[in-house]
Amino acid sequence: MPAGFYPLYESMRPIDEDEDDLPPRPRPSATPDFEAWDAKLAGLDEALEVEEKRRLRWWQRDYWRARSKLWWTGRGIMAASALFALLIGWLAVTAPLSKSLEPIAPPQVTLLARDGTPIARQGAIVEAPVRLADLPPHVPQAFIAIEDRRFYSHWGIDPRGIARAAWTGYGGGSTITQQLAKFTFLTPEQSLSRKAREALIAFWLEGWLTKDEILERYLSNAYFGDNQYGLRAASLHYFYRQPENLKPEQAAMLAGLLQAPSRYAPTRHYDRAKRRMDLVIGAMVQEGYLTEAQARALPDPRLDVRRRDDNVPTGTYFADWALPLAREGIEASYSKQVISTTLDSRLQALASRVVARAPLNGAQVALVAMRPNGEVVAMVGGRDYAKSPFNRVTQARRQPGSTFKTFVYLAALEAGWEPDDTIPNTPITQGSYRPKNARERYSEQITLEDAFASSSNVAAVRLFQAVGSQKVISTARQLGITAAMPEGDPSLALGTSAMTLMELTAAYAGIAANDYPVEPHPFARGERGWWEWLTSRQESFARSTHEDIETMLRAAINRGTGRNAVLPVANFGKTGTTQDYRDALFVGYAGDLVVGVWVGNDDNTPMKGITGGSTPARIWRDFMRGALKLEAAPQPKTTASPDPEGPVQPLDIEEGAEIPVGENGATLRIDGNGVTLSQEGVPVELRLGEEGLVVQPAPSPGASPPP
User: Fold this and answer.
1) Which of 98, 354, 656, 696 is the least crowded, having the fewest Cβ atoms under 10 Å away?
2) CATH number, span 127-297
């Protein structure tokens, strides 16, 4: 019988001699191999089990339960490796190595006026990076001794250093590599996640940089107090010498500053800096960098702080606006930057003087002057920058009042209207919005030019509705107005959409140049080339349209609401006053200057009868006279008609309107009880009525306009 065959019942039957057609039957083995048979059956069971596992799918629980510990261990190692690779890739994108070469604080930038006069200086004081090979040995030794004694032996994290710092108080819990990672790549937040990222970046830096490169970048970026960043800047500031020439005691004092630069700054706390320096010298002795005798022989370092250009302010209204724009075009570097601006130092001084002597009665003021191409030459963002650096030219969004009417009339002129065309000037008696004219003065019809000059509210709203809000908004947008302007709102015609004085004045600059939109800018720009001219979105009005709007602007300033701003040269402008005298504006241009003036209270409370045709117009006129070097303008002829410029809602002054008298802020008010004469800044007023001449106290600045 062949090996491996085991007799069963059939094989044990006797052979039938008659069955000749059947093949011969094998003979049973006398010694069957049962173990081999069992082995083959076991192999069959294993094959079935393997096949069952192969047919399992990953979403079935048995698929995972059948995995061995070795399988899980291998997969875990692979997953950890993949995660580490992803973290390294994430670091390569979010924390590029080149960033550790850049200064951690913006370098100092000095702004110059057009004539070269320094006007502001801001930013950190940084100098060129240091090279370790150029420094005397005691300089890096001082920093290593106090900050990271095992710097050259650890891999970015030093558990022994952490334990030693906790026990002795010397050094810090972070290595020099970790500190470089922290102030170069991370924020100052205190959290476990930040510490984890700090450690990971430290390992990464150690893998990509040499120890000397890490130390060089650390010394070139660390903060040393007094706005000094980097060892070179600190060495020059405190001792007026290059770091390559530092003495051991000077290096020890600088190394001691890093723990708390403001607390230990020797210019203000020399005793603290000296005690900290002694700790550094003691650490240097322990590390073998100095002997006891050398340490005892070190003198106290003498400061040599040489201040220069202390009279240059760190901030002005113009500088606060210009510096962020300047830094956008500056590449990160350690070099100081000196940038010329468009500011005219003579015009800036003139603007400050004019604003300072204006009778504001406690209100705030803003003035911006620019060329028709957008070059800003003067800016006053408030009464006192030291008390309030909030810039009311670029940051405050206030209602422009009737200065917005210019865009309504421009839209009408573009739609085919003419200055001599008439429009009803009768009261609006239908609808929910019913604006009024000053002192309820109406007429059957009024020309567009006269309506603009007298600032008729009902005529402006009717014209707005006739032209269409979409056309008016489109015109304002083309001139650069970005404020929200809801379609279909008739009050928009009277300036109810808040905007900055800067964008309003720039829109008028577009009219002055007949080239819009105008972008205000603090740095000179070259002339546009033919390609830039061809591809730019600059537009202009038709010649007839531009002439017509200038005719209206001239009428408003010469015989209308802006007559207090009249000049002996061609002048164009518009007044604006909002509800309850909350905002008063005058925007206009003459010569090569476009100037906007705003007066109001920061808390939006009413002023004492100040309209766009009074104080703002006088400020504009006084600035323009000095800026254009004009002779004094003739006194405006006083007439019986009041300044019709008034609030937006309920809109314009009714009976009791104030009539400007002269140039010193005096006004005449006529109502049903008599005539009242008052002057800005004078606490009393004269009243002539049926009871005769009476001297009475002037109303408080917050009082509402007369009924």
Assistant:
1) 98
2) 1.10.3810.10
Query: Residue 365's Cα: distance from chain center in Å?
Result: 23
Token output for 108: 């100092």
Asked if the model's pLDDT at residue 274 lies above 90, the reply is yes
Cβ atoms of 465 and 432 closer than 8 Å = no
pLDDT band at 291; cut points 50, 70, 90: very high
How long a stretch of residues is the chain?
707
- What percentage of residues in the chain have a pLDDT greater than 70? 73
Sheet-wide strand order for 376-380: 376-380, 364-370, 593-600, 583-590, 571-577
Residue 344: closest CA among 592, 52, 86 = 592
Q: Kindly state the average pLDDT of the residues 594-604.
A: 96
**Residue whose entry in the numeric block shows the structure tokens 């700790």:** 279
- What are the pLDDT digits (tens) for 224-269? 988 888 999 999 999 999 999 999 999 999 999 998 898 999 999 9
Cis peptide before 650 (omega within 30 of 0): yes
What are the residue ranges of helices labelled H in 240-344?
A: 248-257, 261-264, 270-286, 292-297, 317-328
CB 233 within 8 A of CB 127: yes
Tell me the residue type at 664: N
From CA 195, how far away is CA 410, in angstroms rounded?
61
Q: 3 Cβ partners below 8 Å, 6+ apart?
A: 29, 33
Query: How many angstroms separate the Cα of 646 from the Cα of each of 185, 435, 495?
Result: 56, 11, 12
Are residues 442 and 425 in contact, defined by beta-carbon separation less than 8 angstroms? Answer: yes
First-to-final CA distance of the chain: 133
Count other Cβ atoms within 10 Å, centred on residue 680. 21
Listed by start position, the domains of the chain span 61-94, 127-297, 353-524+540-628, 658-697
Query: In which band, very low, low, confident or very high, does the pLDDT at 704 lie, cut at 50, 70 and 90?
Result: very low
Q: Which CATH class is domain 353-524+540-628?
A: alpha beta
Global confidence as pTM: 0.67
